[in-house]
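Can't paste images in this forum, so I'm doing it all in text. The chain is below; anyone willing to post the predicted structure tokens underneath?
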Amino acid sequence: MQLIASDWFNVILGILTLTFILINLVNLLLNNVNLSKKVVILSGIALGFSAMMDPRFYIWFVYIMIIFLLFSVFEYRKSFFKIIKSLVGIFFTSLPFLLYVYYIFIYPSLITTSVSKAVSFSALRPDSLSYIAGFSQNAGFFNLFTFISSWWPPVIPSSPSILLYPREKWFYLPAYGFNDQMLLPDDFISHLWISSLFIFIFIVFISVFDKARRQISAELLLILLFMIGIESGTNFPFREFTYIFDVFPSKLPMIGGIMSTAFAIPFYAEWTNVSISLILAAIGLNYLINIFRRISTKYIIGITLILIMSFASWQYFDGTLYPSQHDGAFPGNGVSLEGYYYPLNPPSQWVHVMNLLSTSTAGVAYVGEGGFSEKWTNYQFISLSPPLMPGYETISSPQTTYVNQTPLAYDIAGIKYLFIDNTSYTPISNSFIYSYLNNSGLKLVYAKGEVYLLEQSNASVFREAKIGIYINTSNEKVLFNAECLLYPLLHDTPAIITPIKTSNTVTMLLNPTIDDENYMSLFNKTMNITILQGAYIIDHKGNISHLNVLNNEKLSVKSWSMIIPENLNLTEFISTPINFSFDQLKAEFNIDSNSDYLVETSLPLPYGGIQVNGGKLLGTNGFGQYILISNGKLTVSIKLGFITNLLILTMNIFFYALFIYLVIYSSPFKKSIGRVYNNVIIRLSRLKSN
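Text version of the structure:
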């Protein structure tokens, strides 16, 4: 499933588990049976599991139950209390899983704020109709009844006639829907194919003609239409309906917290609709086949319907899944020339560089076309730098004015490698590549066939220095320029700028009117100052000079100049890379540092969300990086990280154990599997003896 459905396998599992619950409830209504404790518990686990796949499944199930209960009041009064009893059991069993899901969603806030604030943390929510409108662009009723309402499909469907068009003409074919939802060649096969997309919904609606199951199919159809209304978003005729079911839930304290992350509400309700439609399709297909008495006719009708549905989904049955995904790098309709699962053939030089990077924990900056756009494949593996630790975004370097500032920016950010990938359909400009190869100051490690790897050997995500600089500013530009001026003096290794004054930091003043040997001075504007007696180093944008003052002197300094007392030991400001290890289960870094040294990390750790042992947290500098002081054995851990990872591990073990119990231990096919296994062993032994 992960290979075929990519990021959608959680949706598939959510649909299957939700269908399992609905089938049990349908059985309760239709046959007036009492659900056993085992079925109720498994249904509750299934509901919790679907919420783990995507929290919206839980919200949509609540919507379904609203219609389910209202319908049962009028049609299934005898079963009403059984339904209530079963639903209470299902929801009660699912509660631990719901709490688990909610904890995972609020965890990033929980480690940085109080519990009360974390539970009601503010985040991006679908709290207006205008916001919902952005997610309703493909949720027209035509799309909803063909189950193609997503606006970023993993595969862009098209009719089989696409195979009659050369690949180089694909992105000139007419496209339908926002973000190239479908490719539609203007021919008879395409129109026939469009018609075949409605076969599934046709069979679903046919289910209402089954007299023996009409009550249950009518109820499910009502639920389906209700959910299609939710799915349509702002395309629904009454805005009040859209507000109540698409917008209002996001304002609720608990449910809204989960929806703040899973915010794309319209058209994704299609996932739930598939669960309902699968049951209705089974009833409808059964009804259509049983209209006819002759067995041969039943076969013909059944096979015909299956073939029509296969024709509608030919790309999946064909196994090629043409014609890939939308890519903004292309002209016309923006569809890649390669099939989605077209065999990959990466250049050997690209593979070589990726092999080098895969063995390194260093930061990497990737330069290339983001998206699915390499000439040699339909797939883009590296649109962004991968995170340096699980659960956190990649680091980014300070903004540079000139290319030759790159080594400093990368050193500060802990980025060791720059990978320039020029193998995409949209080429990088030659001047960009030339400037980085010749003027950036990075070391060229590898260059072959439009693939380049450059290195900043000093960069590390953890580094230490004996003495730091204290500057009372959070302005990133000022800090970067201060580092930039110190850069040549410290032999291409920047100093650590601490956020607070300590016993082993030197004060740096911004734009002082009087300069003496007790501090360093930084100027971001041209001004006149008084310099007291002493020996100084003056650095103006890398131009270094020495000044000896016997008596107080007036001096005019230029913008972005730095005055440093010569009696300072600059070598003690030099920061050096240090080794570290990361324990994923404990979410903990162990850092090999010197005692009483300042330690800086470029990792994007959550502000206020870490704990320090064997040292002290001083705060963050203007770049948002943590500054610590070490006692010799420094350990940095994420708050609640061990508990959270242990909780995730426990949940994984539980579901693996449940799978083993249901599928292997108590499987109705256990005896058959054993018999097949024994037969294979016997046959192989006979073959060996023969």
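The radius of gyration is 32 Å. The longest strand covers residues 626-638.
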